[in-house]
Amino acid sequence: MSTSSDTRNQVIQAYPDHPTYNCSNCSAVIALQDEAITKLFQGRDGRGFLMHSAVNLKLGNREDRSLITGVHTVADVFCLGCNERMGWYYHKASDFSQKYKEGKYLLEREKLVKENAWQLEAS
Fold it and tell me: Domain named Yippee: which ranges (predicted)?
């Protein structure tokens, strides 16, 4: 899949009134904060969050990548709003102890901003 095509019109506005992680570059919603499994993963550019699910992402090419925990079949994921590389998607783990990552997303902490859906009380 080409990552250079213009996909800005495909961005969905998901999860109104829920705390989310958004793209730090264009503010597109990427995931619910509740979808975080752990915040202790290592990404390519620093800390990463392992997430159950994510939205407004497009998959790059599938490839075998040697990571800290072994070889995994992954695909980089890119923001639909601005094409920023946000992390990767785990397709397959070669080691049985790493199978829990399959179907999950590793999102780079430095590419995300927390949106806490603050609501001011009416006075």
Answer: 19-116
